[in-house]
Amino acid sequence: MFPLVAAGIKGSLPWNEALSGVAGSVSLASWIFLLVPQLVENYKQGNAEGISLVFLALWFVGDITNFIGAIWADLVPTVIALAVYFCIADLVLIVQCIYYNLLSARRSKRQISNASARSEPDDPERPLLDRTRHSSDNTRLLGSRRRSSASHRHRGSHSSYRRRDSLSKIAEDESPAKVWIKNTVTVTLIWAAGVAGWAIAWKTGVWTPADNNGEETKMPAGAEILGYVSALCYLGARIPQIIKNYREKSCEGLSLLFFVLSLQGNITYGAGILFHSVEKEYFIKNIPWLIGSLGTMFEDIIIFMQFHIYADNQETSSAIEER
Question: How far is Cα 293 from Cα 230, in angstroms, rounded to an integer?
Fold first, then answer.
């Protein structure tokens, strides 16, 4: 993300600059590990049906405009390198999702083809009851495929369950308490890494408050426009995912930790900007990135509510499949 410029006096570190630096470092750690939970979730599921590709595409466009804006504004190389990392990470997740979606589509065609092959042409000498039974079986099979692709994500057919390795099954059977503990430990470690990283950078002189002598560098108009475009993309990206969750009444296939880290990264990023300064000119200059970070928090909260509301639906679906 964009740098949190400090304006303290050389050799000293005001408390607000320290908090700004810590918040920025924690935000950075959150963004670096952000996509890992969803990549792992897709791998465990063996599909990517839970996440909206429109969501990922808009997010990717936001990161692209963020990257171009960073170059245009002549920001420090570290910020540009991070923008490149975000774009690459987005591409990895998008490619993984497309790969699994193609596999799912191929598997569906194969199952439908097999079902059609098993249905024999009508034979005048064949009993009517037997013909009716085969026809109803095929209809049931095709109908079940439509339900599974259009409603709750049941994590594939029973054959896909059998193909999963033992590690995936163990992870799948984790209790809510274990998942909560695992997520809490992960968030704690990221906070620890962020704080430790900032402290080391400060002590070694890698990170120091910049002395701008009260002068604010004017950002190019084009870079500022790209900042607003990026913010709009980030704001709009979650809407398709929220709609998808609502239509399917399920958040299955989504990683809760993915959205936890997103919320954490946005909170700490916005805090890092505001801790540095709340002066009018500085605040106006950073509005695009405040909108892109703090604005998406409300959408993340909506998704958290969907996780809670649709949890019972997922448990019911799992119980039906086990029968």
Answer: 10
Single out the residue of 239, 217, 227, 264 nearest to residue 31, CA to CA. Answer: 264
In a domain, 7, yes or no: no
Using CA atoms, how far residue 4 sits from 43, 55, 131, in Å, is: 35, 27, 72
d(CA 162, CA 157) in angstroms, rounded, equals 9
Domain total of the chain? 1
The answer to whether 268 touches 230, Cβ cutoff 8 Å, is: no
- Amino acid at position 77, single letter: P
**Whole-number CA gyration radius for the chain:** 25
pTM (2 decimals)?
0.74
Average pLDDT, the chain: 77
With H, G, I as helix, E, B as strand and everything else as coil, classify residue 35: coil
Rounding to the nearest 10 degrees, give the CA dihedral for residues 319, 186, 274, 198: -170
Q: How confident is the model at residue 210 (pLDDT cuts 50, 70, 90)?
A: low
Domain contains 51 = yes
* pLDDT at 126 (0 to 100): 52
Domain holding 233, by residue range, is 15-322
